[in-house]
Amino acid sequence: MTCLRLIWSRIDRFLAAILLTVGLACVMPAQGEAAVAVGWLTDGAIGLLFFMHGAQLSPEAAFLGLRQWRLHTLIFLSTFMLFPALGIAAHRLAPGLLPAPLWPGFLLLTTLPSTVQASIAFTSVAGGNVPAALCSASASNLFGIALTPLIASYLLASHGLALSAHSVLAIVVQLLLPFAAGQMLRPWLGVFIARHARALKYVDYGSILLIVYSAFSHGVVDGIWREVDVFQLIRLALVNAALLVTVITILTFASRRLGFSRADEITIVFCGSKKSLASGLPIASVLFSGHVGLGVIPVMLFHQIQLMVCASLARRYAARGAQTTANQHSGETRIAVS
Question: Which of 48, 150, 156, 219 is the most buried (most CB within 10 A)?
Fold first, then answer.
C-alpha cells in the first residue's frame, strides 16, 4: 500500500505540473523572439531527454531473459501491432468519433513504445514478473526509437503528414543521434546516473514540461482552442479509455488462453498496455511542427488515464494475490491440524 500511495502521489504532482504548464502557455504563450528562444530550448530539451534515455536504458536488460520469448513477443505485438490496428480500425469505421484535428495525435499515440518506470512499478505492486517487465519495457523503448516514427508515418500518410526529408532529418538529429550517444557513453555514465537517478528524474520532468509549454504556446498562437472544445476533449478521453480497456481485456484473455502464469499475465497486461509520454511528446513535437498542441493532447490524456486505471488494476491484482496466499496458508494449517 505504501508503494501504491507513492505512485499516486507522483501521478498527482506531475499531472498538476503539466496542467499548470498548459495554463501558463494559454495565458502567456511564447511569441516573437521569445518563441524562437523557447523553440531552441525545446530542441535542446528533446535532445537531452533522448540522450538521458540512451544513457539509462541497458541493452543487457533489454535482451536479458530472451528465453521468455513468448511473453516478450506478445507484449511487442500489443505495443506495435494491436494498438495501431485498433487505431486504424477506429478511424476507418467511425471517423466521427473524434474531430479531424485530433486524429493524427491519436494515431501517433497508438504507435508509441511502452513506459519503463511505470510498467515496472505497477508490475511490482501487483506481484508480477519484475525482471521480465524490465527486459520487455527496455526493449520496447530501444526498438521504439526507430519503429514509432516508421509506423506513425504510415498511419499519418492519410492525413497528409507523411515523413518529409526535413522530418527525417529532425528525427535523426533530435532523437536518434542523442539516443545513440547516450548508449555509447553509458559505460562511463551508467554508475553516475544510477547514483543520481532521483535528481536526474527532475531533468526528465523539466524537459517534458518545457516541451508541453512550447507545444501549447504554438497551439494557442495558432488558435487550437477554436478547433476543439471541452466536449470534444471529453469524447477524446472516453475514446482513450475505451482503447486502453480493450487492450487490457485482449491481453488478459490472450495470456490466460496461452497458459501464462499469473505473474507473467500481470507483466503482459501492464507492459503491453502502456504508452510512453516521455517518448510521445518529443516525437509529436518533431512530426507535428505545425500543429504541435493538438498532436500532444491525446498522448497527455492517455498518459493520465493509463496511470489511474493501472493503479486501480494493480491494487486488485495485489489484493487477489494476498487472498490466494492467505487461502493457501489456511489450507496448510487445516492439513497440519488434521
Answer: 219
Helix (H) or strand (E) holding 57: none
Cβ–Cβ < 8 Å for 85, 77: no
CB of 178 closer than 8 Å to CB of 188: no
pLDDT-derived band at 237 (thresholds 50, 70, 90) equals very high
Neighbouring C-beta atoms of residue 333, cutoff 10 Å: 10
pLDDT band at 108 (very low <50, low <70, confident <90, very high): very high
Q: What angle do CA 303, 308, 312 make, to 5 degrees?
A: 145
Residue 139 lies in a domain: yes
Contacts of 12 (CB under 8 A, 6+ apart): none
Range of the domain at 125: 2-321
CA–CA gap between residue 317 and residue 206 (Å, rounded) = 33
Q: Is 86 helix (H, G, I), strand (E, B) or coil?
A: helix
Per the domain annotation, does 338 fall within a domain? no
Residue 160, pLDDT > 70, answer no
Query: How many residues would you count in the chain?
Result: 338
Q: Quick one: cell of 225? A: 482552442
Tell me, what CATH number does 73's domain have? 1.20.1530.20
Residue 330 within a domain: no
3-state secondary structure 70-101: HHHHHHHHHHHHHHHHHHHHHHHHCHHHCCHH
Whether residue 201 contacts residue 271, with contact meaning beta carbons closer than 8 Å, is answered with no
pLDDT tens across 257-309, in order?
999 999 999 999 999 999 988 888 888 877 776 566 778 889 888 988 898 88
* DSSP conformation class of 162: P
C-alpha to C-alpha distance for 234 and 293, rounded to whole angstroms: 17
Lowest model confidence (mean pLDDT) among 169-173, 240-244, 254-258? 169-173
Give 258's Cβ-side CA count (13 Å radius): 14
Domain assignment present for residue 332? The answer is no
